[in-house]
Specification:
Elements (H helix, E strand, L loop, with lengths): L1 H25 L22 H15 L3 H24 L8 H18 L4 H19 L7 H24 L8 E3 L9 E4 L2 E4 L3 E5 L3 H8 L9 E7 L6 E7 L3 E5 L1 H6 L4 E7 L4 H5 L3 H15 L18 H10 L10 E2 L3 H9 L6 E2 L11 E7 L2 H22 L11 H16 L12 H32 L5 H12 L3
Antiparallel strand pairs: 1-11, 2-3, 4-5, 4-8, 5-6, 6-7, 8-11, 9-10
Length: about 500
């Protein structure tokens, strides 16, 4: 009897020792990647903190101004913007034109007054929509490989966006248009109405997800933006069925219905359409539908993994931007008139930890500025915009830490568990399923993503508290530059 117990105890010890050895072997870290160098370009910086503070002071003054006097000031500001836009339409405007900084200043300095009297908001939104169309039309003649051209385009288009959104976040909810119709660009392709907008086959949807990685994708490039995801729309000419082709980190390229697409968190959605006067569409008006059909058929007949490397030249794997660019490229249209650059060493290091290799690529946010495309419509509301701004502020501060040398961390003791989960995920991938760790992502990268998400949640949770205290004390929401300052206060507090 004692001999049997001794044998059983020895077996338990042997199994425990073997498991300990396996655990220790699985703890061995993966080889370190070679150090990255900064890009050759320089990230865009506003560097206007004093000016933002001045605008906030203008808003506070406007709140105490007589409503009739304030309305007269708003009317004068709107007339000035209209005059400047009309001047832009009469001449060929170069990026160096003095009209552009005057437009930028007029938009920024009218914004505080409209935020204090949001009855003019809808009119201002239409002015901004006209501005975007005008500036994009002008940029067709600019050299978009020039940093000067890109800076001026970004300052006006992104700058006017942040001005509008600051107004929306200060306004009452019923003043904010949930849907903004921009340009009803004609199209010969099959169409269907979705949420009040006529969507055509071949349209491109830009959106912003609610995950921390979505904020990282939107903000982590030389021209930080608001969009993290690209999808391509196909409309069946026979039964008006809408299919949305997109690539997800978890499963690669997939086809979704409108309901499925909207079921995923979307903090904003923008509809883009090729210009009718594009030479390729003049030659073949059905080209967008053909591109969408190609993307749909490929997605239905083969498994296309997610491209973590962000190599838009390799069509065997596709990240979200490639779904649209690859389909259109098949028919001779090269989207992204200028490639996105990721020059900051901090951003490169963090994205590199998730598997990114190519830092000159196609970022979702930059597609909004492509002059080949018209903005058709945009959906948003104040609450989702506020979530977007909170996420952006947290990411901007976290990326400041990355630039200062902070690296993505992970719970080293969980590496064996993550590696076993990766083996299980690979088996699921072979059978057409998805496991806990996405195809193409390493176990270490998955743990780093978990740490990144937890750190983002920690900072955001504390930021929300400080932002609410600010609102209760001041009587208005903290503008974006204040959210960033508040996020800095909590980023290093544990």
């Amino acid at each position: 009897m004692n001999q049997k117990r001794t044998s059983k105890s020895r077996l338990i010890i042997v199994i425990a020792a073997a498991l300990a050895v396996v655990y220790c072997l699985l703890l061995i870290p993966a080889p370190s990647s070679p150090p990255l160098s900064p890009g050759s370009a320089s990230p865009f910086l506003w560097d206007k903190d004093a000016y933002w503070t001045q605008l906030e002071a203008m808003y506070l003054k406007a709140r105490d101004t007589d409503s009739a006097a304030l309305a007269a000031s708003v009317d004068a500001g709107l007339r000035e913007i209209k005059t400047l836009l009309d001047s832009c339409l009469k001449i060929t405007v170069a990026p160096s034109s003095p009209l552009l900084p005057r437009l930028e200043q007029a938009i920024f300095e009218l914004s505080p007054a409209i935020a204090a009297q949001p009855g003019h908001l809808r009119e201002f939104v239409q002015f901004r929509t006209h501005l975007r169309t005008t500036i994009k039309d002008m940029s067709r003649h600019w050299d978009m490989s020039s940093a000067d051209s890109r800076d001026h385009l970004y300052r006006l288009l992104y700058g006017s966006r942040i001005a509008i959104e600051e107004i929306m976040l200060q306004a009452e909810t019923d003043s904010v248009p949930a849907l903004v119709i921009a340009t009803n660009e004609p199209s010969a392709t099959p169409s269907v109405e979705v949420l009040g907008v006529t969507i055509h086959s071949g349209d491109i949807l830009l959106s912003r997800g609610g995950a921390p990685t979505s904020a990282l994708i939107a903000r982590g490039n030389d021209y930080p933006g608001n969009f993290s995801h690209v999808a391509l729309v196909h409309v069946n000419a026979d039964d008006a069925t809408v299919s949305i082709i997109e690539s997800h980190i978890e499963i690669g390229v997939a086809v979704a219905s409108v309901d499925d697409y909207l079921r995923d968190t979307k903090l904003r959605i923008l509809v883009l359409r090729m210009r009718t006067d594009h030479p390729a569409l003049t030659a073949d008006p059905m080209l967008p539908h053909k591109a969408a059909t190609h993307a749909l058929e490929r997605a239905q007949h083969e498994h296309i993994p997610y491209d973590f490397a962000m190599d838009f030249r390799d069509g065997s794997k596709l990240f979200c931007s490639e779904v649209a660019s690859g389909a259109y490229s098949k028919f001779g249209v090269e989207l992204w008139s200028c490639l996105s650059k990721i020059s900051s060493i901090g951003v490169r290091s963090w994205l590199g930890a998730f598997g990114v290799i190519h830092f000159e690529t196609q970022e979702p946010s930059d597609l909004e500025y492509d002059p080949q495309l018209r903005v058709v419509a945009e959906w948003h509301d104040p609450e989702t915009l506020y979530k977007d701004h909170l996420d952006n502020a947290v990411i901007d501060v976290m990326l400041e830490g990355a630039e200062a040398g902070q690296r993505l961390q992970y719970d080293w003791y969980m590496l064996p568990v993550a590696r076993l989960a990766k083996v299980y995920s690979l088996a699921r991938n072979l059978s057409g399923g998805a496991g806990p760790i996405p195809e193409g992502m390493t176990a270490t990268a998955a743990l780093k993503n978990d740490w990144f998400s937890r750190e983002h949640a920690r900072i955001k949770e504390n930021l929300i508290i400080l932002a609410e205290e600010f609102r209760e004390e001041r009587g208005y929401r903290a503008p974006y530059w204040k959210l960033v300052k508040l996020a800095r206060r909590v980023a290093n507090v544990r």
